[in-house]
Amino acid sequence: MRRCTWRDCTQTAAARVRFELPNLLAGSERDYCQAHTAQVCAGPGTWVQRWLGPRRAAQPVLPGLPGAAPAGRSSERGRKGVGP
Ligand SMILES: [Zn+2]
Q1: Which terminus of the chain, N or C, has less C-beta within 10 A?
Q2: d(CA 81, CA 39)
């Protein structure tokens, strides 16, 4: 597993970022974790070349995360808990 190349970061790299002009690192590629990939890509001349590691690491955030609306869970799923 590659590590994030951000200074002092100990996270596993999640993506390879490509640098182009006008970025100071133009022409180089570096691996960053998910958080730092987002941070680096906020700057000019940067884009994600490809995502690294297992696919589940690059999984998009699901719109219906548990905890956001716990009231709506019982109507669609979880029928095994229905009583007599
Ligand atoms: Zn990092």
Answers
A1: C
A2: 44
**CB under 8 Å to 17, separation ≥6 — which residues?**
29, 30, 31, 32, 37, 40, 41, 46, 47, 48, 49
Task: Compute the distance from residue 40 Cα to the ligand 1 centre, in Å.
Answer: 10
- The rounded percent of the chain whose pLDDT value lies above 70 is 62
Whole-number Å distance, alpha carbon 64 to ligand 1 midpoint, is: 27
What is the Å distance from ligand 1's center to 11 Cα? 5
- Per residue in 39-75, pLDDT (tens digit) is 999 999 999 999 987 655 455 555 665 555 455 545 5
- Per domain, the residue ranges of the chain are 1-54
CA distance 27 to 46: 10
